[in-house]
Design brief:
CATH class of the domain at 335-520 and 591-652: Mainly Alpha
CATH architecture of the domain at 335-520 and 591-652: Orthogonal Bundle
Strand content: 5-15%
Structural class: alpha+beta
Shape: globular
Helix content: 55-70%
Number of strands: 10
Strand order of the largest sheet: 4-5-6-10-7
Low-confidence stretches: none
Largest sheet: 5 strands, mixed
CATH topology of the domain at 335-520 and 591-652: Neurolysin, domain 3
Radius of gyration: 25 Å
Length: 656
């Protein structure tokens, strides 16, 4: 019943044909559905959902392969399909006959539809309006043209970033410049060139962070930093085009700006509410951030730095200060966080918390490093998950969870199990060392697993509101941020933090210190995220160009930042989240959802990490519900009240 991942460069054209054929089949099916009389939820809405779920199942492997095994072939096929997919969905949501049918079914059957079905129709009716279904034909055509152009531009933006990461390298020849690097990182960077040993660093996360954290040569750190924050300069012009089209679309549909349009499918009511939320957090965090920066500067001066700590010094001196204050650094922890141990420990933790069981299975995968598991609860099969966790060339940077199949009931009423992917860029295994993770890598794995659980544990039968589908974007991070908090708890660390050579459990003192340093420089970290959130919301308030974008980021920095980067910083050239992903006018969601996650997690802490009654309630009231209810209701069902904003500050270590 589960699909097998057999897609590769050789058969991509065949998969492309399957996608295109499904689009044509769906178009014919829509014509047939519109002829049905009388139209009901069962004979009209459910077939509409299922045919689009089928299209998603065919297209997802193409998009996935393009992001994890990027090649000229994947680019060619993906780029050719993106406009067709975009056109197909735009045509659907601009189809007045379809809109009328959904509206009539909703009004006629509202009293007897269940919660899931009502939510499906409410979301559909909203989405039709947001795609301009009520506009005159000329304006509808313009919205369609904008959608297609945006899909192309955003894909080009992401491809430019990936190309820039893949082609850059910094070669260091002087052993003095790598003398502070841990042996594992030094070995990973070591290559032979022109008959001598040199060290190669790239913009891939493990390599970049290794030198920024332990690189002794400040000039080399700045050189690497400059490359990182100025990659993909060709995206400067794309930013102007993307922002212009988003603004134009919003105005056509009747909104003042794109930010207003974006918030229609989110918990927050208005851009002003979001800006106020972010600025309040900034006001409460900035005094602590300023104290932390002052302490960091004093420490760096004692270390011999003549000026203030710059952006390219931050990781280097922060790691040294952490070691002086707490007598710990990331290198101490890495031997205890071997990738296989961490993954198996994560499974043990989820078994203790939610009763989940993981069974490794041998199925086709896209790369030998990928591992696959089936998930069970109370001996009942739940779904499948693929893990692709190590960095390599041709793989998009960062970490993410992607859905392939959504939990739902098919035409016969049979449950279709869900399938998910988790992708990361952790240090790859080498001939000299296994993959050893930093604490932040472990946190990332827990975070992405939270996203996956929300998708996999759904009990919702309607695919449009099952798992992450239909969830307000500013609430979608709730389960992921909730789960990542557990990795710092002693009872959880004991399950997997074992030395990869000796098998010894991490000493209690190290566990305590890990939790203690969790909020090290918390004010500065909070301000950095708020800077991104404010920047994102502000650039979507009007029709701005890339020149305006540069002005706005500096206005935001003047307002909230403590550490100001060099003037040449153009990080927004590679800000995939908002220019190529789903976070446009929504980056604030990380902090918005963190209020929910911090509040729920602290409830667990107060009542026992492995409190079965509370864990079962979280499982049933939150993880199985997907988007079948508004997120605010789901939170209330679990906690019995609205979220407490102070919980975020408490958990983040922000002291007023």
């Amino acid at each position: 019943m589960l699909p097998e991942f057999t897609i590769n460069d050789e058969n991509l054209d065949k998969q492309k044909e399957l996608v295109l054929n499904q689009i044509e089949e769906n178009k014919k099916k829509i014509e047939e559905l519109l002829k049905i009389e009388p139209k009901t939820y069962e004979n009209f809405v459910r077939p509409f959902e299922l045919m689009n779920e089928k299209l998603g199942e065919l297209f997802t492997p193409v998009a996935h392969l393009n992001s994890v095994m990027n090649s000229k072939k994947t680019q060619e096929v993906y780029q050719s399909l993106i406009p067709r997919i975009t056109e197909y969905y735009t045509n659907i949501f601009q189809n007045a006959e379809l809109y009328k049918a959904f509206k009539e079914i909703y009004e006629k059957e509202k009293g007897r539809l269940n919660q899931e079905q009502k939510r499906v129709l409410e979301n559909l009716l909203r989405d039709f309006k947001l795609e301009g279904v009520a506009l005159p034909e000329e304006k509808r055509a313009k919205v369609k043209e904008i959608n297609i152009n945006l899909s192309k531009l955003q894909n080009n933006y992401a491809q430019n970033v990936l190309n820039a990461i893949d082609k850059y390298e910094l070669i260091i020849e002087n052993p003095e410049d790598v003398k502070e690097l841990p042996e594992v990182d030094k070995k990973a960077a070591e290559i032979e060139r022109d008959g001598k040993t040199v060290w190669r660093f790239t913009l891939q996360q493990p390599s970049y962070l290794a030198y920024m954290t332990y690189g002794s040569n400040r000039e080399k750190r700045e050189e690497l930093f400059r490359a990182y924050v100025t990659k993909a300069p060709e995206n400067d012009e794309l930013i102007t085009q993307i922002l212009g089209l988003r603004y134009e679309k919003a105005r056509l549909i009747g909104f003042k700006n794109f930010a207003e349009l974006s918030l229609q499918a989110k918990m927050a009511d208005s851009p002003d509410e979001v800006l106020s939320f972010l600025r309040k957090l900034a006001k409460e965090s900035k005094p602590q951030g300023e104290r932390e920066y002052e302490e960091l500067n004093e420490f760096a001066h004692r270390q011999g730095l003549n000026d203030d700590v710059q952006s390219y010094d931050f990781f280097y001196y922060a790691e040294k200060l952490k070691k002086e204050k707490f007598n710990v650094d990331d290198e101490m922890y890495k031997p205890y966080f071997e990738l296989n141990n961490v993954l198996n420990g994560l499974f043990t933790f989820l078994n203790k918390l939610f009763g989940l069981e993981f069974e490794k299975v041998d199925v086709p995968v896209w790369h030998p490093a990928v591992r696959t598991y089936h998930i069970y609860r109370n001996e009942e099969f739940i779904g499948r998950i693929y893990y692709d966790l190590e960095a390599r060339k041709g793989k998009r940077s960062g970490a993410w969870m992607n859905e392939w199949v959504t939990h739902h009931a098919n035409e016969k009423g049979e449950i279709v199990p869900p399938v998910a992917f988790i992708v990361a860029n952790f240090p790859p295994e080498t001939k000299d060392s296994p993959s050893l993770l930093r604490p932040m890598n472990v946190k990332t794995l827990f975070h992405e697993m939270g996203h996956a659980l929300y998708h996999l544990l759904s009990k919702v039968k309607e695919p449009f509101v099952s798992g992450n589908s239909g969830v307000e974007w500013d609430a979608v991070e709730f389960p992921s941020q909730f789960l990542e908090n557990f990795m710092y708890e002693k009872k959880v660390l004991e399950l997997f933090a074992r030395h990869y050579k000796t098998g010894e459990v991490m000493p209690d003192e190290m566990m305590e210190k890990l939790k203690e340093v969790r909020n090290f420089l918390a004010g500065l970290m909070m301000l950095r995220q708020l800077e991104f959130g404010l920047f994102d919301m502000r650039i979507h308030l009007d029709k701005y160009t890339s020149k305006d974008v540069h002005r706005i980021i500096w206005e935001v920095r003047d307002e909230v930042a403590v550490i100001k980067p060099p003037e040449y910083d153009r990080f927004y050239w590679s800000f995939n989240h908002i220019f190529a992903g789903g976070y446009a006018a929504g980056y604030y969601s990380y902090k918005w959802a963190e209020v929910l996650s911090a509040d729920a997690f602290l409830y667990f802490v107060e009542n026992g990490i492995f409190n079965r009654e509370i864990a079962d309630r979280f499982y049933e009231e939150v993880l199985t519900k997907g988007g079948s209810k508004p997120a605010r209701e789901i939170f209330r069902d679990f906690m019995g009240r609205d979220p407490d904003p102070e919980a975020l500050l408490r958990l983040s270590g922000i002291k007023k």
